[in-house]
Amino acid sequence: MSERWPTEIRLSGDKRILTVAFDGGGRFELPAEYLRVSSPSAEVQGHSPAERKVLGGKRDVAILSVEPIGNYAVKLFFDDMHDTGIYGWDYLFDLGREYRNRWSTYLRELEERGLTRDRAATASAKTSHGGGSCGSGGCGCH
């Protein structure tokens, strides 16, 4: 069971910022792009740490809706049709607390792979690397 408990979960009017506050302290404004590329889903995390994906092209992603999952998490529905990540309270807290380091790492990983945050550039880079990864149906988990 989570040690963190949210006291506020609010999606901004433009659907690009999810504000999450927790009892005991911690209030975070988490960008949709950051939440999307940090999704706890198999599409992003893979089936092991070695399979974790670095997603480019998500700069303009928005969150269409936030759905409670029991009393332990939320499911985020993104406008790029991603909806398989379940964000537990502890994970959301960690994403907020570690935002600077995680975001810096993400930007460095994009650069190392020749990807960008913009959609058009990522599409051409993605086609040159082939398919078959999780999310494309190639792994058999979808």
From TrEMBL:
GO terms for molecular function: metal ion binding. Pfam families: GBBH-like_N (PF06155). The keyword Iron applies. Residues 129-142 have a biased composition (Gly residues). Keywords: Iron, Metal-binding. Residues 9-92 form the Gamma-butyrobetaine hydroxylase-like N-terminal domain. InterPro entries: GBBH-like_N, GBBH-like_N_sf. Residues 121-142 are annotated as: Disordered. This is Gamma-butyrobetaine hydroxylase-like N-terminal domain-containing protein.
